[in-house]
Amino acid sequence: MFCQFFAVLMLAALGCLAIRTKTISAIGGKSSTGALSKGLALDYANGNGLSVSHTSIPNFGSQPGAGRLNLVHNQNHNLDANAFITRNMPNIPKADIPNFNTVGGSLDYMYKNKVGASLGMAKTPFLQRTDYSALGKLNLFHSPTASLDLNAGFGRSISNIPQFSTNWQPQTGLVFTKYW
Questions:
Q1: Which of left, alpha, beta for 128 (phi over 0: left; psi -120 to 50: alpha)?
Q2: 64 touches 57 (CB < 8 A)
């Protein structure tokens, strides 16, 4: 239900934009773990766009919906809103096993495709847990076929269950992206 609402909301927002040229792409893939991903992306010449995807992991769970909506795109600035819903437990035919569904989103900003920031939040009601993240991003390398980014920042979890709460913890990572 959330995914359908989010997709309709994103399509309605794009319908309000006066844009001339668009590209529709199919997204699909299979990982070495057997996870299957599929989706659609709609991108406009001026950088606005949206994507909706679904990923499933056999015998475990799925990410039934994820979406991106570009809010601002020009020579200097890029701002995306992202949302997702994840099913973290398999469907087990016992009624007394709760689900561990997680919903969340982020707001991602990039300046001149070189430096940026991201604020994110995810909520898992069963664990009474909310995760927050604040990250910076630095593009180390970018070409028409590949990109390498350094991410660094902090994340925190807050829960009524003390074992699931953390103070702000550092987070770092390198992300390599290949374009075909």
A1: left
A2: no
